[in-house]
Specification:
single chain, 242 residues, alpha+beta, Jelly Rolls, 7-stranded antiparallel β-sheet, 5-stranded antiparallel β-sheet, 16 strands, 36% strand, globular
Length: 242
């Protein structure tokens, strides 16, 4: 397991039940590798058909795949879940996967983004099930690169900027993902509740960090030094929202 940290003055405004609440954005990324078998060939063929016929996946796109259908063709799905549950349990996160929403996702690279405008109340736990295709999960604010291989597992704050780029690239560019080469990565993702005490402790998250005099937004968003910010999709740099 690797444990990376970062200092950053970021604030997430997120929905806590029916109230907007502030919190810090964690600079901790938990990552490791678990032993999972390759998906069966019939499932890989089914995924290829789904991607080519329905998704029209362009470079940088991240889309949801049908999980129920995949599970019917995936005898080792339970093994994958058990492997991640065991790994996360060693980090002080026992039993969270069983009570958290899970989805099957696919990307062909990923533009730099954060998910704090929709998932500020969650932490992501991702298990990558595709083989190594020369791609890294990149956290630009920390200059942290995690090589994506089968069994790579990562837990990180949804508001932390991230993208999937070529291993020796210095940013995201659509030209790095030519159509004739397979750069698709499939992964399972769980939404762990950020207010769970085990998640709070593991990622060192502090709540109600905004000053009481700070104006409160009416929707989920991320602030840097008190200003609403978004991301440059190519470089991952923060940009102030007008």
């Amino acid at each position: 397991m690797n444990h990376f940290t970062q200092q950053d003055r970021l604030t997430s405004w997120f929905w806590s039940d029916d109230v907007i609440r502030s919190r810090c954005v964690s600079g901790i990324v938990l990552t490791g590798t678990v032993d999972i078998p390759a998906p069966p060939l019939r499932l890989l063929a089914d995924w290829d058909r789904e991607i080519s016929s329905r998704l029209d996946l362009e470079p940088g796109d991240v889309e949801e795949m049908p999980l129920a259908r995949a599970r019917a063709r995936w005898p080792d799905y339970k093994h994958c879940v058990q492997a991640v549950a065991g790994w996360s349990g060693t980090l002080g996160l026992p039993g969270l996967l069983a009570t958290s929403d899970v989805a099957l996702m696919v990307c062909r690279g990923a533009r730099y983004h954060h998910d704090g405008e929709q998932y500020g109340s969650a932490v992501f736990c991702n298990l990558f099930v595709s083989d190594d295709k020369g791609l890294d999960l990149h956290f630009p604010s920390m200059d942290l690169r995690i090589p994506l291989t089968r069994g790579t597992v990562v837990i990180f704050d949804t508001c932390q900027p991230h993208g999937v780029i070529r291993r020796h690239g210095d940013g995201f560019s659509p030209t790095d993902f030519p159509a004739e080469q397979d750069f698709t990565q499939l992964f399972l993702t769980w939404e762990l509740p950020v207010e769970d005490e085990h998640v709070t402790e593991a990622l060192d998250i502090v709540f109600d960090t905004a000053p009481s005099t700070s104006p409160q937004p009416e929707e989920e968003q991320v602030w840097l030094n008190g200003a609403h910010v978004t991301l440059c999709p190519d470089s991952g740099r923060w940009i102030e929202v007008d």
